[in-house]
Amino acid sequence: MKYALSQRLLHWMIALMVIGALAVGLLLGFLGFAGVRDTFGIDVTNMLYKYHKTFGVIILGLMIVRIIVKVVKGKPAYATPLTSFEHAASNAVHGLLYLSLIAMPVFGWLGTGANGFPVEFFNWQLPAIVSKDKELGATLMGLHEIFGWILAALIVVHIAAALQHAIVKKDGVLQRMI
After folding, report:
1. What SS3 class is residue 119?
2. Nearest CA to 117 among 140, 99, 100, 147?
3. CA dihedral in degrees (94, 76, 83, 85; nearest 10)?
4. Which range marks the domain in which residue 100 is found?
5. Among 155, 158, 10, which Cα is nearest to 72's?
């Protein structure tokens, strides 16, 4: 059995957006504002920040929709039942992925506002949820970064498990989401 089309589309849209947002986040994190500006110019730097924030807001919205759809539609049975370890690992990784995909954009939104920067969604400015507070902003952006690294590690585990099911076990687990 496969996941509903809506679930599959949400999974792959979010996956592509997260890969893009993480790639830009790593660039911004490693080079910093000045490094990105000096390397690519101010227009590209501003565009990268704007679309990193925009993707974060979209990911947050899609994750909320995804959770609602998951509650309504459930998940299909496995063609071949998972072992108890696989079932526990799958639940843990998926739970942590969902948590990270909600927490990361929330901390980014809060941290951006607390640092006094605009929370951009395309060409609109969203309201800051917290007042300007540089110390709080640094803490929130630190949490945003930590969840970024957690998310990157979880994605590697998730992909490795999917490939293991597809190539080694050949048990149809990956086919449920394709």
Report:
1. strand
2. 140
3. 10
4. 5-176
5. 10
Question: 69-128 pLDDT, tens per residue?
Answer: 999 999 998 888 899 999 999 999 999 999 999 999 999 999 999 999 999 999 999 999
Alpha-helical regions (H) of the chain: 5-40, 42-73, 84-114, 134-163
CA distance 151 to 98: 9
DSSP string, 58-86: HHHHHHHHHHHHHHHH--PPPSSPPPHHH
The pLDDT, as a whole number, for residue 162 is 94
The CA-based diameter of the chain, rounded to the nearest angstrom, is 54
Q: What is the pLDDT of residue 106?
A: 98
Q: Which residues pair with 121 in a beta bridge?
A: 124
Total number of domains in the chain? 1
pLDDT score recorded for residue 81:
87
**CB-based burial label for 32 (10 Å; 0-12, 13-18, 19+):** exposed
**CATH at residue 39:** 1.20.950.20
